[in-house]
Every structure is written in C-alpha cells, then in structure tokens.
Amino acid sequence: MRRLSLDLVITRLSHLFLRTLRDDPSDAEVASHKLLVRAGYVRRIAPGVYSWLPLGLRVLREVERVVREEMNAIGGQEILLPALLPREPYEASNRWTEYGPNLFRLKDRRGNDYMLGPTHEELFALTVKGEYNSYKDFPVTLYQVQTKYRDEERPRAGILRGREFLMKDSYSFDLTDEGLTASYQAHRDAYEKIFTRLSVKYVVVSATSGAMGGSASEEFLAESEIGEDTYVRCLESGYAANVEAVKTVVPDALPIDGLPEAKVYDTANTPTIDTLVDWANGADLGRTVTAADTLKNIMVKTRLPGGEWELLGIGIPGDREVDEKRLEASLEPAEFVMITETDFKNNPFLVKGYIGPKALQANGIRYVVDPRVVEGTSWITGADEDGKHVVDLVVGRDFTPDGTIEAAEVRDGDASPDGAGTLVSARGIEIGHVFQLGRKYTDVFTVDVLAENGKPVRPTMGSYGVGISRLVAVIAEQHHDEKGLRWPAEVSPADVHLVIANKDETAREGAEGLAAQLDRAGLEVILDDRKASPGVKFKDSELLGIPTVVVVGRGWADGKVEIRDRFTGESREIDAASALDEIITAVRG
Ligand code: ATP
Ligand code: MG
C-alpha cells in the first residue's frame, strides 16, 4: 500500500526466514513479549538484547518511518552520531559519573575510556558548536534514529526495556526562551500525531510539579496495566500527571478560637498509628478518632550537593504513607536517607515512636508538614517523651511548621489539583519525553554564537525522545488477543495475508494470480504457499496479526474467497471476480 514501485515482492511463507513457536518462551511474562517471540518477530541474544527477524524488522521500520515523517514535518533535520563515544564530553557534563552503573563503559586498545551512548545531549551541543556561530543559523532542530545503550538494572519484557534499544532523539536550539517554547510545542504536537497514527492509547503527564511554568517536561505514557510508571488522572477533566507532580489540594484554614487546649496523655505502648488510634478511641476524648486525626513525624537526613547532612522532620497525617518518589522529587536537588539508630543516639531529643513538633523546633530541626496540615487543624501527635502523646495540638496556636512538603502518597479519591473531580491511579509505559533543558549543556561547552548586536548569545536547548523499539512492544501490548498479534495498518508488516487453503491446483493458481494483482495494486502481500494444513496456516495468520486475511479455500470452485478482519474478527465470503476491489477497499478502509 505504501510502496510505489511495481516490481513483484510478494512475501512467500515457503521462503520467509520465519519460524513460529507453539509455546510461550519460558522467560516471558507479558503478552507482547510472548507473542513477538512466538510469532518469530524477535529473538533473545542476552538479557535486554534482541535480534530483529524479517517481520519484526518491518514493524520497527514502519514505526521509524512514521516518526521520521512527523519529525521532518516540523523541520527536524536527521543526522547520525556515533554510539561509541569518548569519555571527555560526558566527563565535562559530569554524566560519566552521574550515570552510574547504567552506563556501558569500555576501553580501547590504548587504554582510553569510551562509552556506549545512553543519550546524546553532549554530542549534539558539541555538533552545533562545531558548525554554527551566528544568530542567523538559529533556530535549528536536529534528530537521529539511533541505537542506545543502557545497562538497565532490570531489563524487562523483551524489547520493552532493553539494554540495547532504538530511540529517536531530537534536540532543539533556540536563542530565546520564546523560541524554546515554540520548539517544545512543535515536538509535543508532532508526538501527538505520531502516537495517534500508531494507534497507541496514551496520556500526556506533566513530569515535574511545574516550577518552570508547568510545561518544562512532559511524558507520553501508553496506557497499560503492565506499565512501570504510575500516574493519576481525573476522569472528569482529563488531567493527568506523574504522582511526583501532583499538588495536594490545600484545605481552608480553620478558626482557632474556642478549640480545646492541647493536653498530654500517658499512652504507654502506642508506638504505631494503629495502637495510638486504639488508645484514643478508648480514652474518652468525646469523639471518634481515625488515623487521619494523628500526625506522624518521619525523620530523614538531607544533603545538598557538596553540603552537610542535616536532620529534617516531616509531619504527615497518620493515615498516609510517605511516597519516597514524591519526597525525592520535593527535596531535589538535595538527596535524603532515613535516619538510623546512631542518629537517635546522637540526638537524644528524638524519642522513637513519640517524636513531636515541639522537640524538633526546640532543637533547631527544620520541620515541614503535609499541605493538609493547615492553620487551625488539631492533631494527636508525639509528646517527645516515651509513652506520651499530645491531643489537640493546634497548628498556628501550639506550633507553626517551617513549611509544607509534598511527601505523602497520592490515593484514589484524592481531589484533583484542577478542582474538577477526584483522582484515580493508572499504569503506563513511557513512550516519549519532551523536555526543556535550557542552557545546561550549552553552558558546559560554552556554545556561544554572535547575536545581531555583535555580542555573544548562548542557545537554549530542548531534548525530545521517542522509544522506537519500545513502541513495537507497546503496540503489540495494546493490540492483541489470545490468538496473537493484531497490527494497526500503519505499522503492519504487510497489508494482506493470503492463505492458500486448498490443495487443488486451480485454486493455487487462482491465489497466485490474486496475490500478483494485489501486489501490482501496491499492496504488500504475504502469501502462505506452504505445504501445510489449513489449520496450521490459520493459526499462524492469527499469530502474525496482519490486519486483512484472505483465504482461498474450498469455496474457490464456486467462485468464492473468504476475507477476514483480524482486528474485528469478522469474516465474510466474497466473489472471487470482485475480490481484488473488495480487498483493496478493506485494506484502505
Ligand atoms: P524509563 O523511565 O522507561 O526508563 P527514561 O526516562 O529513562 O524511560 P528517556 O531517557 O527519556 O527515558 O528516553 C526517551 C525514550 O526512550 C523513553 O520515553 C522510552 O520510550 C525510551 N526508552 C528509555 N529507556 C528504554 C529502554 N531501556 N528500552 C527501550 N526503550 C527505552
Ligand atoms: Mg530509564
């Protein structure tokens, strides 16, 4: 269908380098992995390292084609940088070290350090620096479709998370922030087109809490139960965000006047929230207490790059757990660790199980709270003495936190930050990422060009990735049934899968003739001309997943062929005489 030349390139299953497997590979857990291996699309070489066999390679090339078309449409220019890279540029950006064990490092025969590129910001910045030196050259967007290497800790699901994988990475270079915004938006629009053309169901989530205007970084996640990314969405408004990016809806402050006095109670053996709630409900406080009425205080140590470790107290409602990813994102660029026994020993004012805001603030420890802990709220929390808690400790009267922090888990039913409804969580697979980098890398390599006024100006960058090989798995994951793959037309390895299910010589000749006609009409045909039973051939046609299956079988003698839609499962008999037109219509929709 996409081919313009008229030479005969019918793919004959009798010759195709293909072996389908009856059984699922033993190392496969997810459907796409099982099916892509069983259907002979890919083969495993090592953990996270796969070969592409003919049909798999065709799908991969189709995905690439769609991505290229949309990149070219926004003015992207394709180049190709090496995957084998010297250490120095990555040393300059500190990523030689920062990338940690994920980086494949190697040495050449002279003992020089090399690496296999995991992503190419450094090299693109250097490439632009090497060629361009005037404002007249900008803006420019460059991209490549290239094999990347990452020594992933957990390669997974075949080509879904590989250690060698194919990525489209592009980089925009603009001289102004407005320019960067426009380049970013162009990529974002192109990605929407790409994933729509590929029939991928996806959401766009903001990847950061929006400190840089909300669109500094967004991820495209394919909706999938087997995804490793959790995100939340609001079904009413379509809001979607990474859990790290969710901002808690802050309740209104409450009046303090008339609230009961804070009172310390003996609460022996209540080191956990459950035991504390049990105690409270047996203590005649005049109300029913739940975990949400308690304030638990978690102690961590944080450190800014190059700085010293400092204690930090975090108060969150007792019915919620700390979400370490959210905490990490909130503290960035500082890192954190949980405190240890030694820290308790060195800071005797920390009473394990009974830590309260008072002792923290009295000892100069920074104390931050969940945004729900607003002025006028009353809490049951530690009283900084073994076996003691304080009840009715009021924010703004009895203590004032040093600030708020997004560290508590986000739960289904929480209010959506856009006020439109509630949040539900879902899982996704990252298929693309758009990111406003700014001048991080142009600073590292002092990429300066002459502005119109003759002064040097430093370009600002965007970086944008699409996981091309991963998309093959994602499409397979979203489009299959128990029998096999079901490729969307745009990426299918062929347009028509023509099965000869009749030993009769005239039927075989008829099928050959029909295949040739389809081919001449510009459709890509797979012809199952093997000497195998119809049952085996039908099973393989389902497994391989070409959208339109045509069967030349018993009906041939009566002038009939069967046409099956692999996507809907529908099948019907059509007249052999008009088969060509009907098949073309079925394929082209
Ligand atoms: P992930 O969180 O899944 O590891 P990432 O944040 O590391 O992804 P980027 O560095 O932004 O991903 O890379 C751009 C794109 O490359 C991703 O959106 C994804 O589609 C793809 N990709 C990343 N790592 C892999 C991998 N190990 N195997 C296959 N594709 C990958
Ligand atoms: Mg990664």
For the largest beta-sheet, the strand count, sense and barrel status come to: 9 strands, mixed
User: Class by helix and strand content?
Assistant: alpha+beta
CATH architecture of the largest domain: 2-Layer Sandwich
The CATH class of the largest domain is identified as: Alpha Beta
For the CA atoms, what is the radius of gyration? 31 Å
Which stretches are poorly predicted, pLDDT < 50 over at least 5 residues?
210-214
Number of structurally distinct domains: 3
Number of helices: 15
CATH H-level homologous superfamily name of the largest domain: Bira Bifunctional Protein, Domain 2
The percent range for helix content is: 25-40%
Give me the oligomer status.
single chain
Strand content: 25-35%
State the main characteristics.
binds magnesium ion; alpha+beta; binds adenosine-5'-triphosphate; 589 residues; single chain; YbaK protein; 3 domains
Characterise the protein shown here.
The chain has 589 residues and is α+β, with helices and mostly antiparallel strands. It has three domains: 11-16 and 494-588, Rossmann fold (3-Layer(aba) Sandwich), CATH 3.40.50.800; 41-246 and 425-477, 2-Layer Sandwich (BirA Bifunctional Protein, domain 2); 263-394, YbaK protein, CATH 3.90.960. It is 26% helix and 28% strand. The protein contains 15 helices and 32 strands. A hairpin with a 5-residue loop joins strand 23 and strand 24 (456-457). Residues 210-214 have low confidence and may be disordered. It binds adenosine-5'-triphosphate and magnesium ion. Residues 119, 150, 152, 161-162, 165, 167, 430-433, 465, 467, 469-470 line the site of adenosine-5'-triphosphate. Adenosine-5'-triphosphate (ATP) binds next to strand 9, strand 22, strand 25 and helix 12.
